[in-house]
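request received
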Amino acid sequence: MAIDAATVRKVARLARIAEPEEKLETLARELNGILDWIEQLSEVDTTGVEPMTTAIHTPLPMREDVVTEGGDPDRVLSNAPKAAHHFFVAPKVIE
Amino acid sequence: MSELTALTLKAALDGLTAKRFSSAELTQAHVDAVAAARALNAFVLETPEKALAMAKASDARRARGEAGRLDGAPLGIKDLFCTEGVRSTACSKILGDFKPTYESTVTANLWRDGAVMLGKLNMDEFAMGSSNETSAFGPVVNPWRAEGGNAALTPGGSSGGSASAVAAELCLGATATDTGGSIRQPAAFTGTVGMKPTYGRCSRWGVVAFASSLDQAGPIARTVEDAAILLTSMAGHDPKDSTSLPVETPDFAAFVGKPVKGLRIGVPKEYRVEGMPPEIDAIWEQGIAWLKDAGCEIVEVSLPHTKYALPAYYIVAPAEASSNLARYDGMRYGLRVEGGNLTETYENTRAAGFGAEVKRRILIGTYVLSAGYYDAYYLKALKVRRRIADDFDQAFEKVDALLTPTAPSAAFSLGEKSDDPVAMYLNDIFTVTVNLAGLPGISVPAGVDKSGLPLGLQLIGRALDEGTLFALAGAVEKAADFRGKPKKWW
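response:
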């Protein structure tokens, strides 16, 4: 499953990272190096093995669906690159 | 006042209790040591005024007879922990000048017990690295140098700042985090003690997320007892982290010095890897002999899937990271680099804000989670992860703990492995299995290699059995009698 420059372009787009055209070949080579090494996992017989998604053996706790804190827009916005009228400002998405 | 910075945490706390010195004096000595050690690049933010104010408040508490477990002890905090009003960046450009409006649970627990914050410690960007070279603030330098050489060595990573600062006596202890070995490998490289507790022991709330099913906070300290004291404060159930375990936190320090006679220690034969330096093998044999002398029974065990742990980790961790790091979009905090439209703004922000290794891992993670590859890579890795955890379960039917080397080498030169991602990843070959299985592991300094550089031994325990690990680590520490200190050159 070798990765080529076109695949890197597509994955970078999915990851929302701008990668310049001239870097795609290098990245493809690096990622292939890592994936070739990962390929050894195919040697492991995993027939009938349940995928392990967590190291916690107890069920996740539930809590009451109530407001615990909030009502503090200044705190929420204090690190915003752009904010106005207690809102985050994002680039326009609807013409 | 360098004698104050040379104290162990325990000795410093005893000195404060006996009123031999004040926290203001102890803290000033450390503030001065930090300012004089900038060549190490261990701190990315020094907070001397905050430290001295906290020390003064601590002295006032002590005068009122209200001193807590860590009252007045100056500590360093890894920059992955959010600290209220104090810049927290995970050593990434993408967080810019981020000042959290909240405090991580682990650091809040330390302040509750009276600890003093000296500043924020350098680390690999988003904790992704094994040499501290991926930090946006530049690499940390190991205070240790090879005998007869002055080449700059890595303190390991990702908690390189924590390890370097503790080894150089800039703080009495430090917080750190471990996703694949980031507490234990730097501890081994700097002659310090590093404890990665059971997954769920310490709250992840307010710790910048890398790979949520693997990340766990823990201490780096100069002695096993100091590490136990710190973990006792850091740990505890936190309803704000759904994976925080609802269990009592024992007084871990009470386990240090307990007899280990009769404990069964497993030696996993798969950890004897090809190309391992003979010195690593020798220190491991030495550790086995020490525990045998202490009355332990040594049992050879098998963890057959060990060699598959790193490749499985390099699917699971990047997959979780690609999801966790999706939040850095330039809209709510941190860096924003404008583009012609929203998508371009996202892409430009993330291109400028993330470093090369972080981008590499996000791309791998995105790829293994993408349609058509999910089953072949991600699901396969999760099944192998189960196999690795099952290996440990079977081993712990026969033994109480496992003894292994911590890292496959001593500290290497800065720049030596930075061009080869897979060679860098292999640093974590002995530590990463523990994260996948969610188990506790501790690294203890055990000796030096032929260049006089520290080497560590790792003890791995059953889930929530940190107490046994502290007892065993104490026994190894006592037998090794490791008193080496880096010669001051900074």
